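Good morning,

Attaching, inline, the backbone tokens for the sequence recovery test we're adding to the shared suite. The designed sequence is right after.
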């Protein structure tokens, strides 16, 4: 859950256990990265909360509720480490291998990984620079997976066409 404290801090509680992880963000602590795919309105509300609109820095109740909803549904809670694990696992297993990707990330459930994957592939074209290079890593990894499967299929076809070489080999060996 997300709420704004009386001090203007954004308090985020994550997890399903009794000992939920609590992160407290002061308005100036927001670090938004391209891999968060933050909605423009959330950025606007964070800036309004941080810098104000010229007369005051506080959000009204509707804006606070909107901030909470946008923040709760955002990908802001993905760390750079988790993002890099997502990229590596997606390249290794393919973008549709949700189970393998979530096992590689360890801190995310399959549902969270699938949600991130869906948004990532809907919005990946907005990434630039080194973030776009990471998209290319996944695409290259998927091409390698496809080539590997094709090679396996080709070898399987070839081996099925060959007869058992051992009897012929034994004749040559013992004659």
């Amino acid at each position: 859950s997300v709420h704004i404290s009386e001090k203007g801090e954004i308090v985020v509680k994550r997890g399903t256990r009794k000992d939920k992880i609590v992160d407290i963000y002061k308005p100036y602590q927001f670090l938004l990265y391209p891999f968060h795919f933050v909605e423009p309105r959330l950025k606007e509300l964070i800036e309004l909360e941080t810098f104000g609109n010229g007369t005051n820095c506080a959000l009204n109740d509707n804006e606070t509720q909107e901030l909470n909803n946008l923040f709760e549904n955002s990908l802001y809670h993905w760390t750079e480490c988790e993002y890099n694990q997502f990229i590596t696992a997606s390249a290794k297993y393919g973008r549709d291998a949700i189970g393998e990707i979530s096992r590689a990330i360890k801190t995310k459930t399959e549902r969270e990984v699938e949600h991130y994957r869906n948004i990532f592939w809907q919005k990946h074209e907005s990434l630039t620079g080194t973030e776009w290079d990471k998209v290319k890593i996944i695409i290259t990894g998927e091409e390698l997976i496809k080539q590997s499967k094709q090679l396996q299929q080709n070898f399987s076809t070839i081996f099925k066409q060959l007869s058992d070489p051992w009897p012929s080999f034994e004749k040559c060996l013992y004659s």
